[in-house]
Prior knowledge:
CATH superfamily: Aminohydrolase, N-terminal nucleophile (Ntn) domain
Structural class: alpha+beta
CATH topology: Glutamine Phosphoribosylpyrophosphate, subunit 1, domain 1
Distance between the termini: 32 Å
Amino acid sequence: MCGILGYTNCITNNQNVIENMLKKITHRGPDDQGYYQDNHISLGMRRLSIIDLNCGKQPIFNEDKSLILVFNGEIYNYQNLKNKLISLGHIFTTNSDSEVIIHGYEEYGNNVVNHLRGMFAFAIYNLHTNSLYIARDIFGIKPLFYTIVNKQLIFASEIKALFEYPGIEKIFNEDCLASYLAFQYNPLTETFYKGIFQLLPAHYLDFNDTLKLTHYFSFSI
Length: 221
């Protein structure tokens, strides 16, 4: 199943915060845990090992270590995509499907999502530009939630991990109640907690001091 999380900036008790967040999603990835932190970003991942059991650890870097990735999901066309990227000069160090995402992002930028066939939620941080790119698959099979606190972005595969970040409060969102009672479903982007949002299916976001959402895919008849 796996789970990812992270937040921008460096905060007090930085290591304890990300470790506590990861504990909340241990059930999503009992096989392994990894995280990366510097003065601009914290990224973490719990792993359920399926592909490349020994070498597919995360977070994972590109060749020059300018990009770093955490990924939840499975890319079904990763072998074909890997062969194409190798022919374009990219160097792989693992046999994992996660590595095709980061090299794909090097090659295609934000448009990498249109080359992926599978279920996914992933985050890529650019260490040179201090920008964060987060994407979700077109059907929304893999979950991703986010919020803004003091102009910083915090995200996770499950909402309960977000509450380990200082300053995030559990405030019930009454705007969701009527729709849920009528349809057993919340149609809003905002969740049952005020200020906490889901990244919708077929969307990606860019964050570098400000947040920009993009709808990258729509069905046509």
